[in-house]
Amino acid sequence: MPKSTGTGVDPMSADFIIRPARELDTSAVHSIELEQFSHPWPLQQFHRELILPFSRFLIAETLPVSRIAGFSITWVIPPTAEIHNIAIKGEYQGRGLGRKLLTAVLDSLAGEVDEVYLEVRTSNRKAISLYESAGFSCAGLRKDYYENPPEDAWVYHLRLDQK
Ligand SMILES: CC(C)(COP(=O)(O)OP(=O)(O)OC[C@H]1O[C@@H](n2cnc3c(N)ncnc32)[C@H](O)[C@@H]1OP(=O)(O)O)[C@@H](O)C(=O)NCCC(=O)NCCS
Predict the structure, then answer these.
(1) Can you give the residue ranges of every domain in the chain?
(2) Domain 15-162, what fold?
(3) Ligand 1 binding pocket mutation candidate from 93, 103, 120, 155 (most atoms within 8 A of CB)
(4) How far apart are CA 109 and CA 91, in angstroms?
(5) Can you tell me the distance from the alpha carbon of 121 to that of 129, in angstroms, rounded to the nearest whole number?
(6) Whether pTM exceeds 0.70
């Protein structure tokens, strides 16, 4: 029997598409935010990201049964972009979906911005490994950048023409 998530989608056999977020996605996105971050954004912030003209809000969705498996939010203000948030729901992690989503974000930025920045908790080995393998390099440290728990952030940087 395939492993079931109780949602009717076996995470080991689902396919995924990456698409722009819609209003109806926000509560599922917020559930992932609550599951994956110790200092989560409020639901209202996700509604706001849908209307900010410079925000690129992408969804990773399972197929053939539609479930929200992850999301990313990037502020695109040429000549730079900043990835503010990227997360994959726990049951879908470790299957290449985070990399697929990050690649989609970077592909969407090609020709539009020269540089991409992001911050990451210094203890977040998974995310750091993903970013470094995508070509990002460490550009500095922001002391006490995070709350709950307090932690420094590494600033990571990618020049898109170096990809
Ligand atoms: C970081 C995150 C998006 C990665 O998504 P994912 O779907 O699990 O990652 P993938 O399966 O695509 O793996 C991509 C890379 O991430 C890294 N990675 C994934 N799981 C890892 C683990 N358990 N330990 C170390 N590195 C890991 C590896 O570099 C991996 O590449 P590889 O498979 O070639 O070794 C996901 O773990 C997540 O949502 N974490 C919580 C939210 C978060 O911390 N977001 C980042 C905020 S800055």
Answers:
(1) 15-162
(2) Aminopeptidase (3.40.630)
(3) 93
(4) 28
(5) 12
(6) yes
